[in-house]
Amino acid sequence: MPIVTPDLCDDYPEIQVVEPGFRNFGGVSAFGGEIVTVKCFEDNSVVKEQVGLPGNGRVMVVDGGGSRRNALLGDMLAEKAASNGWAGLVIYGCIRDVDVIGETQLGVQALGTHPRKTDKRGIGDLNVPVTFGGVTFHPGHYIYADNNGIVVSEQALNVD
């Protein structure tokens, strides 16, 4: 049974719902898993490091501060994430190379697109609570996303 966030909201009324504004860009339109967080602003160094590690079906939640001045994810990092077993990325910021990302077997939701890449200054925090869209995302909690929206739970939900 695929992930359907309206059904999850009906079955688990206690889950949190992220405010609308994200668009689905990945080749996988519905995805979910355990949360890994990255907090960064216009520097995707930590995102690049993490996609190179085994994802084990987890979802990277990237708090880019909502910046629309550059892209925190492009085709090469998305392909690396997919090949390393990440279920997806939710990015509070922009991505680029959307045509290729749309063909990549990876869930990707972001605010929008921007053709400029970030500078790599090695700045960012890993696995700290991050807040955007009216929700605080904690490492080890769970996130589920589809074309209807994004929901967050402290526990893994039965989506089978």
UniProtKB/TrEMBL annotation:
It comes from the Bacteria. Pfam families: RraA-like. Its EC number is 4.1.1.112, 4.1.3.17. Its cofactor is a divalent metal cation. InterPro entries: RraA, RraA/RraA-like, RraA/RraA-like_sf. Keywords: Lyase, Metal-binding. SUPFAM superfamilies: RraA-like. It catalyses: 4-hydroxy-4-methyl-2-oxoglutarate = 2 pyruvate; oxaloacetate + H(+) = pyruvate + CO2. Belongs to the class II aldolase/RraA-like family. Homotrimer. Catalyzes the aldol cleavage of 4-hydroxy-4-methyl-2-oxoglutarate (HMG) into 2 molecules of pyruvate. Also contains a secondary oxaloacetate (OAA) decarboxylase activity due to the common pyruvate enolate transition state formed following C-C bond cleavage in the retro-aldol and decarboxylation reactions. This is 4-hydroxy-4-methyl-2-oxoglutarate aldolase. It comes from Marinobacter xestospongiae.
